[in-house]
Every structure is written in C-alpha cells, then in structure tokens.
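Hello K.,

You asked for the raw outputs rather than the summary table, so here they are, unedited. I folded two proteins back to back in the same session to keep the settings identical. This is the first:
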Amino acid sequence: MATASSFGAVFFSSAFAACFAEVCTIPLDTAKVRLQLQRKAPPPLPPVAAVAGTGWAVGAGGMLATILSIAKEEGVAALWKGIVPGLHRQFLYGGLRIGLYEPVKAFFVGGTAVGDVSLLSKILAALTTGVIAIVVASPTDLVKVRLQADGKANTVKRNYSGALNAYATIIRQVSSTVVEGIGALWTGLGPNVARNAIINAAELASYDQFKQMFLKLPGFTDNVFTHLLAGLGAGFFAVCIGSPVDVVKSRMMGDSTYRSTLDCFAKTLKNDGPGAFYKGFIANFCRIGSWNVIMFLTLEQVRRLFL
C-alpha cells in the first residue's frame, strides 16, 4: 500500500501530466463537444441565411471543418474555451484517478501490486478510481462543456464570462425559465460517472496491460516507444467503449432540458438515430488518443525524474 507521501507525489505528477495533455489537446475536445451536441439538421435555410452560415453549419464536414469554422467565426482563442475548468478538472480528476490506481489495485490483489496482476484486478481498480475522481471533479466537467458549447452555432446561449462566472451563475441561477443552484453543478452525474469509470478502466487497465504485454516481447524495453504504443492502444479502447455515454454526458451537460440520463438516451436515439452515439468519433479518438499518448509519456518521464 502506498504511503501518504508517495500518494502525494504520484497525485501531483499525475495532475501535472494530465494538465499538460489537456492544454495540448483541448481544441480537439471543443470540436468533439460541438459535434456531439448537434441534432439532425432542420429543413434547408433560405438562401440568405444559408449564405450567412447560420445555424447548422458547424461540424457539417466533421472534425476539421468544425475546428476551422470555430476559428473563423469565433476566433482561434475559442478553440481553448473551457481550458480553465478543464485544468481544474484534470488537476482533480487526473490526480485522483491515477494517484489512487496503484493503492486500489494493491487492495484488490490483497497486498502489494508487484509483478503480473490480473486484468480483472486492473479493471476493478480503474473503475473504482474513475468513480471516486469524477464525483469530486464533475462540476468542473459541467462548466467546461458549457463554455465549449456556448458558441455562435449553439442554440442555448449562456454567455458566461469565464469559468468562475459560470460556477457562480449556476449556483445562484433562479429565474422563471431556469432554476439551477449548487446541485446543478452535478447535472449529468450519472452518465458522467458511467462514462469516466468506463473510460478510466479502458485507459488505465489497457495501458497497464499493453505495457506489460509489450515488455514481454523481444526487443521491447521500458522506453518512450513502448509508452507511445501502449498510450495509443489505451486511447482507442477508451473511445470505442466510452463514446455512447460520452455523447449522452455532453448533451445532458450542454442542454438542461433533458429530465434524466434515460430521457437523454431515448430522445437521442429517437430523434437522431443510433449513429448519434458515435457522433464526433474521429474527433474523440484524435482527442483521447493524442491525450493518452501525451499524458502517459509525460507521466512516465516525470516519474522517472522525480519519483
């Protein structure tokens, strides 16, 4: 079992690696959120409106078109919308989920997690730390999604001036049409817990397993190339498994009209079809795949230097 001091060191090194990866990849995350929030296009716009680029233009050509559209219509800085709550989230969520992983894994195996550990123990440990971490960090996720969604093409305009203003507005928001309050910071907690527990298990357990597998192969050593391959594998598994709950989470956090997780799932399936649950898949893979590579490479180097 890790000591308090070793947990603190692992927590801060994990938080640093997660925050660095967030800064590098958040434009892809912004594009992913915009794509996931899209509904089916309404009837064709009048020629004037179509020329003006109103309404449903964002994301029509996929991830690259979405990024270019955001940069053109809202400015390049808009691609980093949500970076402040994103860093809040990664500091808490990234630090906790990775910092707790080894001690929780040791708990599941009944001692020190040394040598080969079963894949089931890795999955259980990652599911557990994912749940704990996101329950703490979910308000930061909500604010990040809302800031990213609050673009010109979005129909729900909140006009937050920044992350702190968003937290404060949500807590005190009471009007004839919107009633939120402090509990609203945990809007979408159900799909968020499901999404992050699943993705955390896919990322940490698969990275751990891929790395263990590669190190048994001839010619592989514990180096950057091995970390890169393991990170890519972890990202791919995370996106394939987590995309449906990720879409539901983004829609619930971006649109407060859904009554529950099941309501959001049912309406998305009815109105947009099953393909909607993998909307933004390429953007999501580019984001999570590159995020995992950057985060794990950074984490391994930081651990090698300081731990």
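The second followed immediately with the same parameters:
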Amino acid sequence: MTDYYSENTTEPIYARETHLPEELSALDKILLISDDQVMMADRIQQPLGYVFTALAIPLALLNVTIFSRREMRCATGAYVIALNAGQLFYVVTGTIDVIWGEAFNKKFRQLSWCLYSQYVTIYCGLLVAKRGSYVILCLASVERLYAVIRPLHVKNFFLSKRPLLCVLVVYAVSAVWHVYYLAKSRLVMEANPQTGETKCVIQRRDLYLKTKEVNDAIGLSARITLSYISLALQLLMNVLTVWALRRHNMAVRHVQSSTSEEAKRQQERQLTITLLGASACFLLLSLPHAFYNVFATSFPEFQPGKKYSNLYSVMGKCTYNLTVLACGVDFFCYLGLSSKFRNTLRQVFLGKKRSGIQESKNRTSASDVS
C-alpha cells in the first residue's frame, strides 16, 4: 500500500527478506536498523503522534475561530484561516485513516478503507490540502512583505484585495495538478499466497503504464513547485521581510506622525512580526519532512523494501509527527506576539463584557504605574 508518511507511492509488499553480506561496512552498521529497533522507535513515536494530533486539532480550530471574528478580519487573517483549514483537513483525514486501519484492518484490508486512504487521505489531504497550504502561507508572506515596503499602497495590492479568490485559485490549481494521481492506479482484492488472506492491493492502470513518463513528470513538477519551491520562497520572503522591517523602522524613526497613524503603524508591524514568527515555526517543523522526501527519492536504497528501508520508516514517522505539530504550534506564536489575538481570545472565552472590564483594569494599572 501507499506509505502514509511520504509523498512516494510503492507497490504492496507482503514480506521483506534482506540478505546481507557477512562483512558490513561502517556506513551499513550505522544505517542498518533492526526490526527490534524499529519497534522500539514505534513505541516512542506512536504516543507522541497521538499527543501532537490531540494538540494540533483543537489549536488549529482555535486559530480559525479567532481569525474569523470581526475584529480580526483582514487579508492576512484570511490566509491564516485557509492555511489552518488545509492543515486541519490533512491531520484529521490522516488520523481517521490511522485509527481505521489500526482498529479494523489488523488481519485484512477492507476495500472501503483502501478507497478512503487513497482518495481522501492521500489525494485530498496529503497532496491537495497540504501542498496547497504551503502556497497559501507563501502568499501571506508576500502580502506582508508588500505591506512593509509600500504601506500606503497595500490596500490596492491584489493579494490584499482578493484573498478569498487567491485561496480558492490555489486549492483549485492544486486539485487539478494532482488529478494524475487518481488515474495512476486502481484497487483490487487479491489473496496473499503466503497466508491466504484477502487484501486490497494497488495495481497500475494500463493508461498510466502507457504514459508513465508524462504522469511521473507531472507528479514531479507538482512536488517541486508546490512543496519545495513554495517552502524556499517562504524562507526568502521571511528574510526579506526582516530586512524591510529594519529599513522601515529606521526611515520612520524621525518622522512626526499623529497618534492614530502611529497606532496603525504599530498594529501593522505587530501583525507582520506575528506572521513572521508563525511562518518561521511552520518552516522549522515542515522542512525535515521535505528533506526526507527528497532524500528518499534521490537514494533508492532508503525506499520501502530496499536495503535501508527500516531507517526510511523511522525517519518517515518522525518527520510526519513534526508536520502534525506544525499544524497547531503557530497558535502559541499568535498568542505570544499579538495583543489583538490575545484580546479576541479573551472575548471568546470570557465574553465581551468581562473582557472589557479586564481590559479597563489593565489600562488603570498601567496608568498607575506610569
């Protein structure tokens, strides 16, 4: 079946036999992981995966709820909602897939579970939603960079005027770009010659075999463009935004402005810094999985069923857990860096009246201190 932790698909493997030479090189001794070590790693990573999932889902829902409030509505907020919605869909579909597989497919693979895994978890979640969310965050970083460089013209910027349209176009393009996956293989029920169990396995379609080079080229272009280039551009946008912020702060240091203009400038600056922190955390946790996919694609020895397949399995589950954690960790960035986010969160849980009382108390205490 398909490897849930990577973006590479393989044929089903019923048994794995590895014939190793008696004399192992120093590299082999390091990279060869025994089945017992894999089981030990699974005992550690599986509970961590459940904890990260239980943490990521409610935090992503909180992000969507907070940024959907009227006081938080802006172009950047729309991109944050779309990002969290895509990541949330990716995590939820993957979690259902794992629970369904563990609970009901210990001895056999049901056709319904295989259909869900192939077309919902992988196509909709892993390919369309996850890769689309990379592009969404890249667009948000571009919009914030433009807001720093040309603050007076940002309202007329297309990414600021039509964020919803940009989000819909990104996910639509991602869905169309990955249509090749739907025509790539089919699911059939097949008996295992070793155990006699009937399992659902993947078989390549004749159309795919006739146009294999074209389909593989489309898949590679989608992976490179939507995943690797998007992450690289996002990193570049963050560096340029930091540079632009420093220049902007030096330029306006000696400029006289009204109180309202200064407050608006501080609000935009805080929003930019908040998105910078959130995107930096997202990059830090998402890049290992991207490197893992590049590594597995470039070195066939690390793919399932090959020489270092056990190391491949451990790396895949570890980096997958990091991507799950990336779906909710940005909540703490918003909470720590944005006072507006904290006030809105307080209103959601305490109500508008109690939040207003608390805010007035904070102003009074601040004035007493001053």
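Residues 292 and 298 are 10 Å apart (CA to CA).

Happy to rerun anything if the numbers look odd on your end.

Regards,
P.
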